[in-house]
Amino acid sequence: MGQTMNMMDAVIVPMHPEGRKFVAIFGAVALVLGLISEALFWIGVGLTVWCYYFFRNPARVVPQGENLVICPADGVVSLIQDVTPPVEMGLGDQPLTRVSVFMNVFNCHVNRACIEGTVTNVTYHHGKFLNASLDKASEHNERNSITITRDDGTAIGITQIAGLVARRIVCFVKEGDSLSAGERFGLIRFGSRLDIYLPEGVAPAVCLGQTTVAGETILAALDASIARVGVSK
Predict the structure, then answer these.
(1) 215 has pLDDT over 60
(2) What is the pTM of this model?
(3) Which helix (H) or strand (E) element contains residue 139?
(4) Which candidate in 180, 192, 225, 232 is catalytic?
């Protein structure tokens, strides 16, 4: 059976409910500015449209494959390092490959699960609001860590990290919840970063500087069927 797409769906992207109050605030401010100046009113309208765009919640086409690791965030791969994961994630005390995806204020900030499995850890940490692109942001910034574990015991850790502008991490899941690959599990408001800890021996299939799409970009393969390709230029 053939499938068709309504062109309006490609233009008018749904907004996540978390953004409704912010859009309302921006809209109200625009109306107040309109009482002062027409120019200020249109600036306010532009910012309101941007706020709506920031909280967009588009549908994504999730690659199918039981051994695929799907990228959880829109953004740019800013770091690929071997580091010891946070203790609370339950991923052991040996270095694992960590892939960091930096999200700017124009990226979609809805985060999605890398694999299908059960949430075995959710840990929130208060912290600073350093530039999320910095390596030390993983340790010092406000952050929320979750671990998703498959039925075969394979686990992947994801850390939502607040940035300079971001002041609120939202996580929709709790320990014991089941997630499918590509399913939404949280978001971060206004600029941030995600760290993904791959299982031992799993190499990333992305490169530094690569642009990723949450729920669509293949980050790695657990069976090593996909290797890192390409050179950042």
Answers:
(1) yes
(2) 0.80
(3) helix 137-140
(4) 192
